[in-house]
């Protein structure tokens, strides 16, 4: 059995792209991930398929687990011989109670390591254009918890001392007590016209900021339905600044859902976020490898003139099986290789191979006609998904092209929750099967505009009464470009 070990780590201020490289590596490697409420859910896409994922989040006045129970859970999983990642929002030692968890493990002789992170107390104001320090305005900043462990406010902090500070005051987890906080500061001499701001749901699709003064920020926050927990309160001269670069990226403020397999959603999320979009992931399609007859075909590759790959997953699993069965790249000598789409081509290039054939239109139909023209006198091996489109095989049959399909995998539905898209502007579908699974399991598009990866996926959407934007190429880059074009046209 493996030796127990725990990493107590911070996921950063809420945006997965701001999570450290070290933490991302640990998410991929650890046997169990015990995570909090305020982490970016897309980080869980990095987990291996057999990783145990346990939610231990806390919200204001509502705890999924008591801290004592969390401590015991971390220790229990470690003593099972697992490498455990305790993944916390922000930094684990900035009001994250990571110190208590470390002490608990230390008292029981369980080895652990602390992984620091960017704290929301600095990153959230900064993301919204508010620097916590600024020459001539603020030479210091003070971070204060907005509530005590027992939930009471009185005597939790020395507000007489806080009111005399000339720097920036940052209150975490203080929305429920905002009126008490502002009143206490003014009571002890803080000027009523001191700039103040409240930032709610920072670095999420529901991010919202209001600005005012110490005197009116409580009323403004209570009258604004978009100001909800979690929220950060900033008091000081820098709260009046707004150093954001407006509309610096084409998808700023656009909310997009992304569906499909883990591999595809990861790639498209990265692309959309780079353009400024908020992304909600729906990785409800899982790739399940199948027992297949590829070994026999590899032993007889001399009878094939072409190999046709229809997806990046097919490429990856094909070469995984080649390695498993003890074949090397020379086995494919003499075969011409055909692919559909940029993603499939790039996956092939990871194995130091370039495609010989690629249709201009990234569809099974176009590939079928290309093979019918170039492989009529040969034989084609097609490693593919069991439940994929039948268009390619139908065209080859019609044109009397000799071929054999090997089913390396199938995509299966793996999400138990209703697939709701409330609040989204767009929803991207990566395949026709992802469309079927979405609607057959209760998915609802609401006001989101559907985006299809190609004409086959678009046709499947029409069968459910949905007209979609159609990506001209089967790639994450082109799907992002399709959304950008639609936003710019409007």
Low-confidence stretches: none
* Overall mean pLDDT: 90
Side-by-side strand order of the widest sheet: 16-15-17-18-14-13-19-20-21
Radius of gyration: 27 Å
Biggest sheet statistics: 9 strands, mixed
What are the defining features of this structure?
Rossmann fold, Cobalt-precorrin-4 Transmethylase, domain 1, single chain, five-stranded parallel β-sheet, alpha/beta, 21 strands, 23% strand, nine-stranded mixed β-sheet, 4 domains
Structure description:
The structure is a single chain. 31% of the residues lie in helices and 23% in strands. It is an alpha/beta fold. The protein has four domains: 5-118, Tetrapyrrole methylase, N-terminal domain (Cobalt-precorrin-4 Transmethylase, domain 1, 3-Layer(aba) Sandwich), CATH 3.40.1010.10; 122-240, Tetrapyrrole methylase, C-terminal domain (Methyltransferase, Cobalt-precorrin-4 Transmethylase, Domain 2, 2-Layer Sandwich), CATH 3.30.950; 255-286 and 413-489, 3-Layer(aba) Sandwich (Rossmann fold); 288-411, Rossmann fold (3-Layer(aba) Sandwich). Strand 19, helix 14 (432-440) and strand 20 (449-452) form a beta-alpha-beta unit. The longest helix is centred in the C-terminal third of the chain and has 14 residues, at 476-489.
Can you give me a brief rundown of this structure?
This protein is α/β, with parallel strands linked by helices and 490 residues long. It has helices at 21-29, 67-79, 98-107, 120-127, 159-164, 178-187, 217-222, 262-274, 294-299, 312-324, 341-349, 364-374, 391-398, 432-440, 455-463, 476-489, and strands spanning 5-10, 32-35, 52-55, 58-59, 62-63, 83-88, 112-115, 141-145, 168-172, 195-200, 208-213, 231-235, 255-261, 278-289, 306-309, 336-339, 379-385, 402-413, 426-429, 449-452, 469-470. Strands 16-15-17-18-14-13-19-20-21 form a nine-stranded mixed β-sheet, sandwiched between helices.
